[in-house]
Amino acid sequence: MGNQTFVKELFLSGLSDLPALQFPLFLFFLLIYLLTIIWNLLIIVLIVTDSHLHVPMTRNITIPACITQIFMIFFAASETFLLTVMSYDRYTAICQPLHYIQIMSWKVCVWLMSSMWCFSFIYSFIHTFFASKLAFCESDIIETFFCDFPQLLQISCSDISINILLMFILGGFFGGWCP
C-alpha cells in the first residue's frame, strides 16, 4: 500500500459559518420540530377522546369517488418510479463518479422526473379508465373500508378479463422497468 493518511476526526460544519446565525437557526428548526410533534399529539388526543372520529360519517360512496380513490392508489406507483430514478442517480454517482456531471446533467434530471410523472399518470389513467367502464348491477357492498381495485372487480357484473390482463401486463412492464 502507498502513503495514506487516516482521518481520525470529522468536522461538523453545521447550518451556518456565521456564529450570529447559528442560534436563531437552531431556534427556528427547534420550533418547527416542536410544532410538528405538538400538532401530531393533538390529532392523536382528538381521535382517542372522540369516539365519533373512529368511524366514517357515512358508509356510502359514489362510484366516481370510488374510482377516484383507485386512481390515487395506482398513482402511488409514482413512489416506485421516483425511487428508481433516485437509485439510478446514486448508481451513477458511485460507479461512474468522474462522468457523473456529464451523465446526470440538469436536462437528464428534468427528463427523468418528467418521464416518471408521465408514466405514473398513464399507469393510473389506464387502470382508472377501464375501471370506469365496469358495470355494477347486483351487489353494492365492498367488504373493506376503502375502494380497492380487486374488491371492485369482485362486485362487477361485466367482463373483467381486460382489467385483469391490464393488471398483469402493466404490472410486469412497470415492475420490470423498476428494479
State the main characteristics.
179 residues, 0% strand
Account of the protein in words:
The protein is mostly helical. The protein folds into two domains: 19-54; 63-177, no CATH class. 65% of the residues lie in helices and 0% in strands. It has helices spanning 19-49, 63-75, 77-95, 100-103, 106-132, 149-154, 161-177. Helix 2 packs antiparallel against helix 5 (106-132). The protein is flat, with a radius of gyration of 25 Å. The two termini are 37 Å apart. 6% of the residues are buried. The model has no long low-confidence stretch (mean pLDDT 84). It is a multi-pass membrane protein. InterPro entries: GPCR_Rhodpsn (IPR000276), GPCR_Rhodpsn_7TM (IPR017452), Olfact_rcpt (IPR000725), Olfactory_GPCR (IPR050516). The chain crosses the membrane at residues 25-49, 61-83, 103-126, 160-177. It is found in: Cell membrane.
